[in-house]
Amino acid sequence: MNHLTELQSVTPQQLIQPYRYSSECLPLHLDPPLTPLSVSPQIPYYTPALCYQYRPSTSPAHYYSEEEQRGISPPLEVSEGEEEFEDHSRSFFRKDSNNKKKIRLYQFLLDLLRNGDMTESIWWVDQDKGIFQFSTKHKEALASHWGVQKGNRKKMTYQKMARALRNYGKTGEIKKVKKKLTYQFSEEVLRNLYLHHTSH
């Protein structure tokens, strides 16, 4: 009897404990199937968050539009600048090519003296030596006529023309004489003038 009682006392403990553990283990085994259910409610929870994150993404879209505008506007500005530069370059080369075809200042003055034009503004002091003089009163009229002949937009003044005459002193076509408003052509210019007369 004592042996049976011991078995009975032991057996229920052994039966209860496995049952108790099995009952505790069941929720553990049931939890994993529930874990997707527990996660699935989180999907709507994350979905608004994702929507909320996607909703501010409209601001990057606005930022992209600004960036796109910035990306569009600089090329337009550059293209306009390039067009202006090209137009300026073309006009510069056109002016340069035209200036090459146009008469130079010393030739212009030489033609006036040779043809007897604008005698009130310029005349020979000593034609054989190539010395000529400008009029004090009418020198500005001659300078203005030279500016028109040259194709300048701004009005030519005698001061600007005299600066060009001084530059001829470096190249040798014309030199300044000590007398006021008086200059002298170089021998080479006079020689070319003489050859031009004899050829015609």
Automatic annotation (TrEMBL):
InterPro entries attached to this UniProt entry: Ets_dom, ETS_fam, WH-like_DNA-bd_sf, WH_DNA-bd_sf
Protein name: Transcription factor PU.1
Protein location: Nucleus
Principal location class: nucleus
Keyword Lipoprotein found: no
Similarity field: Belongs to the ETS family.
Alphabetical keyword list: DNA-binding, Nucleus
Superkingdom of the organism of origin: Eukaryota
Pfam families for the chain: Ets (PF00178)
A GO biological process held by the record: cell differentiation
One GO MF term: DNA-binding transcription factor activity, RNA polymerase II-specific
Location of the ETS domain: 103-186
One GO cellular component, as annotated: nucleus
